[in-house]
Amino acid sequence: MQNYKKAIESFKKALQFDSISIKKPKQYAMLLNNLAYSQFKLNEHSNLPKLFYESLKIRDSIQHIDGIIISKIRLSEYYLAEKDTLKSYQFINDANILSIKQKTSDNLLLTYDLLAKVDPKNSTKYLRRYIEISDSTLLEERRMRDKFTRIEYETDELEEEYNKVKTEAKQLEGEATKYKRRNKRVYRILWWIGGILIILTIIFSVRYYQRTLRNKYEKVVLQQRLLRSQMNPHFLFNTLNTILHTNDTNPEKTKQYVLKLSRLLRTTLENSREEFVPIQDEIEAIDHYLNLQSNFSAKFDFKVTIAPELETEFTYVPPMLIQPFVENAIIHGIMNTKTRGLISLNFAKNGEDLISCTIVDNGIGYSKSLQEGKNNAKTHNSISGDIVKERLAIYKKQTKSNASLEIEDILDSEQQCVGTKVILNLPSYEI
Length: 431
Description:
The protein is an alpha+beta fold. The chain is 69% helix and 12% strand. It folds into 3 domains: 2-118, Tetratricopeptide repeat domain (Serine Threonine Protein Phosphatase 5, Tetratricopeptide repeat, Alpha Horseshoe), CATH 1.25.40.10; 139-228; 267-430, Heat Shock Protein 90.
């Protein structure tokens, strides 16, 4: 609530600039739509739906298709809340048709999610379409991750080739020096020839290396954004299949599932576009994820603790680094125990530029999970180890921070494993 109130104040201040509606109509329409949506979330309907229609009119006049889609989605949400399902369906259906033409998977997911709520009779059809688009997105992400691995391998090969050229250049200089002692005149000729060849080789190698690295870096940035949107497909399939199976027998429970899943997917999609997000958003996403997982199993409880000095709304961290370890705690830790599980997450500041996230479970322990099968060990280490370590290494270079990952067993007084502790030190900044 407090966030929407602050947002309304900011939007109103920005709209006071007289020239913005003429010089920057795209931004002006966005501010109107965001202001209207914030008021809608606070149930302040005095200027609604007038503001939504003003924003839609401007976006339609400048043919801002993505903006038109968002405006119609917001209008559909508004009329759904007003119980006017006819108008709600008209707007969300228009937004869905435009999203199909634009081929924007994010907007398609939003429109099918809302269509399932507006038109419950056909909700199964919309949810199946939702699953198909999600499957396609996950497959594309897997392909991009494979490309990212190849990029790193090619970069290593390029560095090795460059070092080899430097080594050969030094050897050539050494041979030229020896030859100089034998024949001064021959040495001068060889020195000039060798020097020119070395310079030309280094110039062309460095230029090629820089150009290649620049292209690789642009690709790496894209891979990072796609990598952040990772989500376990088994979890998605379990959730959506549960929704489909309970739709006929328990519609109210189906609505709760859809609401929780849509919130989690929306947060994930929004965070995947950003390099850094408020840690408050990350914590909310983890809470949605744990709530959904607990619906499948009553075998565990969870709690989240936030240090008082941590201002979650104004502290930013890289997204999608915590969820894989929460997933591992459930699948590889407490699911293999006979006792009731407990997962604890603690967030606290660690110096000026780090946020420490500690994940503790009372499962079988990290070492034992590695011993119980190569497949489990590979999944446990690959997702929550290799990928996160690679991303932390990139952030460590970019932010010059001491970002790190530690995984250890929790031992009792008899040196028996009674759980796992994961400590993530994430780079952060405050605004």
